[in-house]
Amino acid sequence: MSDEPLPGAASHLRSAFALSQHSMLIADDQRRWVTGNAAACDLLGITQEEISWHTMDEFVPADARSRLDEAWEKFLVNGAAEGWYRLCIPARGRVPVEFSATANVLPSRHLSVFLPAEGTSRPAERGVLDWKPAPAESAGRLPLTDREREIMTLVASGLHGADIAEELFLSPETVKSHVHNAMGKLGAHTRAHAVAIALVTEQISWEA
User: N or C, which end of the chain is more exposed by having fewer CB within 10 Å?
Assistant: First the structure.
């Protein structure tokens, strides 16, 4: 994505950080955490005041750190990355997550979104580090329908499929289909990446 922040990006990010139950963090160019939401603090086992004392590297397993510099450089050039990962968290060990990273959501500020990886075997299959470039080109993306925006907003807020189905009086399969269609339109391969793209393209409707 472009280095220029999208209109309203800061406002949308503030809303996301306040309202989402998913872990969201912002890092600078040196991989230092700048800020994070309450869910991120719970995930990493640190307080809000401590976030800026830590770097991304501290939560990367030791056997994957040698690859981090190269992956980070590719991420900054490409503009996005996504995949499955194992965060190394003191007192908890390696925690599998589904993640998305988006570069320059604000100048020299990079967004990471972490969703629980429960229910997928990919972390075990793919190993400790599965950090691959995500398509940064937005020209092929399609706008979401009102229903898809509504469902992606609920996904971004932290609700699971069954909860969304109950909230909207839909079947779980219908919700799953809408999420799948939204991911396709956004060019995302993971829910975390779909949430991140929907956020930065302002297709999350918190006011609803």
Answer: C
In this structure, the strands spanning 109-116 and 129-133 are: unpaired
**Structural domains in the chain?**
9-133 (3.30.450.20), 146-200 (1.10.10.10)
End-to-end CA distance of the chain: 27
The pLDDT tens digits along the chain (208 residues) read 344 444 466 777 888 888 888 999 999 999 999 999 999 999 999 999 999 999 999 998 888 888 889 889 988 988 888 888 889 998 889 999 988 888 998 899 999 999 987 554 454 444 444 555 555 445 457 889 999 999 999 998 888 889 999 999 999 999 999 999 999 998 888 888 888 888 888 888 776 5
Distance CA 48, CA 50 (A): 5
Q: What is the spatial order of strands in the sheet that 109-116 belongs to?
A: 33-36, 23-27, 109-116, 93-106, 80-89, 129-133
